[in-house]
Amino acid sequence: MKFIATALKNDIAIWASMPSTETRYLGDSSVQVPSSKRQWVNIPSGKNVEVGLVVGIHPSALSNLMPTSINGVKMILLDSYSAKTLPQDFHGVLRLDVSDE
To answer: How much is the pLDDT for 20?
Structure first.
């Protein structure tokens, strides 16, 4: 499932899955296969980006909240969400909606 993430007030960074490819080796040949990779995604204010699963928001956007560390990455975790509960705003800085694709 893909989501549309929109920065509501200021530029923000979110920890999200982004589509990528990886190389798989089959004997003497290799093929590129679809994959996903979690990374920081920067979103300018008022703009939106298509992403996979969004896990959290960079702590600099919400300095009044205590970040959680997951595998050494500090972030403000999002409340649980599903396609049925979207569109939904998180902490007044991020809106998530389901992508049409």
So the answer is: 87
